[in-house]
Write a structure and sequence with these properties.
The complex is a heterodimer of chains A (114) and B (111). Chain A is mostly beta strands and 114 residues long. Chain A contains no helices and eleven strands. Chain A starts with a strand and ends with a strand. By secondary structure, chain B is mainly beta. Chain B is 0% helix and 55% strand. Chain B contains no helices and eleven strands. In chain B, the strands form two sheets. In chain B, strands 2, 4, 5, 9, 10 and 11 form a six-stranded mixed beta sheet that branches. In chain B, 35% of the residues are buried. The chains are: A mainly beta (114), B mainly beta (111).
Chain lengths: 114, 111
């Protein structure tokens, strides 16, 4: 089945450690996104990529880094510079050339900093 | 003022009720409007997608867009306990890009 796979589902990190969240899609979508979700707030865009080897900062990119070496993969690294990393992280993709432009989401990764 | 506002709820209704969920927005350039449903600890899933103004119906769900008032609504008829979730509105100016989300409304449908 086509979809977006995020891993791990749950992750615990000590302060000062970098962690990488995986996102893989087999939908053949060009665009991929990382959002952060906190209680009572809308999804906030961290980074997005519309094509391989290219990505742009979203609204809250500080303390995060990404890479897009393959069309299927868009990993997110939460660095120690991110001051408040505990959150639910959602990866999404969209096919900009189809007639809906909808976002498809993964199941999310919940990061807790101890 | 936030770009997209949504009543956070929680909203509790009895089974079978008609539910109205609403979003207001400030950017008149938004043209693409979406409603997502998100169950607890899961990723959002697309419920309805509308382009520009008008109504769209899909089963028990109806989406309305009023661009003149910068207001969108999602109506759920004959609500079921399985509809209990957080509903997120999202919109964009450009086709398939730069989506802006509301904070979500938590809905509980009580049996």
């Amino acid at each position: 089945d086509g979809g977006i796979t995020q891993s791990p589902k749950y992750l615990f990190r000590k302060e000062g450690q970098n962690v990488t969240l995986s996102c893989e899609q087999n939908l053949n979508h060009d665009a991929m996104y990382w959002y952060r979700q906190d209680p009572g707030q809308g999804l906030r865009l961290i980074y997005y990529s519309q094509i391989v080897n290219d990505f742009q900062k979203g609204d809250i990119a500080e303390g995060y880094s990404v890479s897009r070496e393959k069309k299927e993969s868009f990993p997110l690294t939460v660095t120690s510079a991110q001051k408040n990393p505990t959150a639910f992280y959602l990866c999404a993709s969209s096919a900009r050339t189809d007639n809906t432009g909808e976002l498809f989401f993964g199941e999310g990764s919940r990061l807790t900093v101890l | 003022q936030k770009e997209v506002e949504q009543d956070p709820g929680p909203l509790s209704v009895p089974e079978g009720a008609i539910v109205s969920l609403n979003c207001t927005y400030s950017n008149s350039a938004f043209q693409y409007f979406m409603w997502y449903r998100q169950y607890s600890r899961k990723g959002p899933e697309l419920l309805m997608y509308t382009y520009s103004s008008g109504n769209k119906e899909d089963g028990r769900f109806t989406a309305q867009v009023d661009k003149s008032s910068k207001y969108i609504s999602l109506f759920i008829r004959d609500s079921q306990p399985s509809d209990s979730a957080t509903y997120l509105c999202a919109m964009s100016e450009v086709y398939g890009q730069n989506f802006v989300f509301g904070p979500g409304t938590r809905l509980s449908v009580l049996p």
